[in-house]
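To whoever is on call:

I kicked off a structure prediction for a single chain this morning and the downstream step that reads the tokens threw a length-mismatch warning. I double-checked the sequence; it's 60 residues and nothing unusual in it as far as I can see. Pasting both halves so you can look.
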Amino acid sequence: MAKKGNRIQVILECTEHRSSGMPGVSRYITTKNKKNTPDRIEKRKYNPTLKKVTVHKEIK
């Protein structure tokens, strides 16, 4: 039986990768508590294609 709670899965996508024109996408999957953070989250994560740390924003 599935848990019922406030925790949901979100996808973080790199913002710089899209504007660079390089093929591929840098995405991370994480969870967040929608009750504590109702707005979209931004985290600084490593982008292996660009080989540097960039800002990743929540999509969808």
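Update from on-call: the warning came from a stale cache, not from the record. Cleared it. Sanity check on the structure: The first helix runs from residue 15 to 20.
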